[in-house]
Amino acid sequence: MLILPILAAVSASFGWATGIVLAQRPAKALGAFEFTRIQLIACSAIVAVICSALGYWPSVKWSYWPSFAASICVGIVLGNLAMIECLRQGGPMRTELLLSLKAPLVAVMAYLWLQEVPSGTDIFGAGVTLLGVCLAVFFGGNEGSDSDVTTGRMAIILLLGVTATGFQGFGFLIMKPAMLAGTEPLAASAIRLLGAALLISVIALWPAKTFRGHSELSPSLLGWVILPGFIGYGVSSSLLLYAFANFDAGIAAALGSLSPVLVLPILWQKEGLVPRFQAVCGAILAVIGTAIIVIF
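The line above is the sequence of EamA family transporter; the predicted structure tokens follow.
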């Protein structure tokens, strides 16, 4: 039944949108580094258990270890740190919108690195996405929303968002040879998460104030850190993998990129404030641009 993979992809988008809204409060409380460290350790354990249960480890092509290492350092550790700091300073709506730039940024990197020449349609889609992001980020803010309040300069928020998107896109792109060689996607995710958890735990041993949490970690706060990570890494990733396996990959990717739009009704439900018209239009344009790139 085609309805199941379609629902899976849309549910994955909803999960990521929900996760980033839930992550804002604990990320502000702990700081980007401590939040990322705890979430990576917990989520890597969860995904590793799932991989073990499904027997995916033998599929890993270890000869591509340089790709795994680069993906871990750049895509997971640096990408997640930049994303969480963007979330802390800019809020979930702006973060999701900036992350929607991943498709055009990956297309640029694929052109520079793999000599994959983008088509006119790809360039048009990238332009539509960029237009939507600019419209929503610069004109779609809602001053009455607690989640939409910025705590940093817009230039810094934009830099963090674009950096996070570029790093995460690089982390996925550099894994392409290993995936084409037969490595199961979930096993690749588990290795990336486990490696990132180890690396960030070693870095945390350095006695620097930057690496310390801003607040004392209570059991309740720990739960709020792990929950959005489990939703994103465990539930949403698995749903999107199911959609990729049972439906057209391009359409599945487009349906899995709806979070910039879906985050708006979630924030509306959370705070009772109607999103601004510019934010809605910008989010829709960002999703349409991504769909143009991945489908056509």
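Note on the example: Residues 3-295 form one domain. DSSP finds twelve helices and no strands in the chain.
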